[in-house]
């Protein structure tokens, strides 16, 4: 392993008979937006306003998992408003993934603006601060935003800004969500405020030090238990990349044998 410290092992997802375990020295979370916030999406030519929680339900995310993700393929027609900060241009961009996880902080930061808009998100999730919307902008973690800052937003399809009137903490233990948007790495929530796509191209590898997959053959077909394990990633370790047969033997416990 990369560090000589204690590590956490969490079940992250279970899809198509494969269970993914994450190994990490740190809390395995992404920087995210509260589940009751709304996002504006375009599906074909229809514009929809939907809460993150509802979007997670539509995409089949499991509430029982500490971390879940719905990966959308390249043919998905779901789009979200995003900003190319190098050109300061607004466009509808494809969504790569929706990520859901438990909020380990126990609270969220609430930003209130002079126009009456409100946004609730984790303390480390980035928002865009600008002197004016035609100049270079700065992505700040929410806990570094201050009253009077000008926060970038989209209004009627064009860039503008709003002034932060207040920022404070609120207790919150619900799920939080993030959306992965390739290339531009940001997205607008329904009120137009722009937040950073914090996962930088979603993958479990970006979150954990190690990723282990465990699966089992269909016992109705094989008439016996056949378990398999593969170490998909272990940071800074030259690990075996093939699959193992996993068995539980009396007096030995878990035994791994190379296939």
* CATH homologous superfamily identity of the largest domain: Hedgehog/Intein (Hint) domain
* Main sheet properties: 6 strands, antiparallel
Radius of gyration: 21 Å
Structural class designation: mainly beta
Q: Return the string of H and E elements.
A: EEEEEHEEEEEEEEEEEEEEHEEE
Count of distinct structural domains: 2
Can you describe what's shown?
By secondary structure, the chain is mainly beta. It folds into two domains: 69 residues, no CATH class; 170 residues, Hedgehog/Intein (Hint) domain (Endonuclease - Pi-scei, Chain A, domain 1, Beta Complex). It has two helices and 22 strands. The chain has a six-stranded antiparallel sheet, with no helix packed on it.
List keywords for this structure.
single chain, 259 residues, mainly beta, Endonuclease - Pi-scei, Chain A, domain 1, 2 domains, six-stranded antiparallel β-sheet, four-stranded antiparallel β-sheet, 2 helices, 22 strands, elongated, disordered N terminus
Short description:
The chain has 259 residues and is mainly beta. The protein folds into two domains: 8-25 and 208-258, no CATH class; 33-202, Beta Complex (Endonuclease - Pi-scei, Chain A, domain 1). The chain contains two helices and 22 strands.
Task: Tell me the layout of helices and strands.
Blueprint (H helix, E strand, L loop, with lengths): L7 E8 L2 E7 L8 E2 L3 E6 L2 E6 H7 L8 E5 L6 E7 L4 E6 L2 E6 L4 E7 L4 E4 L4 E5 L6 E5 L8 E6 L2 E14 L3 E6 L5 E3 L5 E3 L13 E7 L2 H4 L4 E8 L8 E7 L3 E6 L1
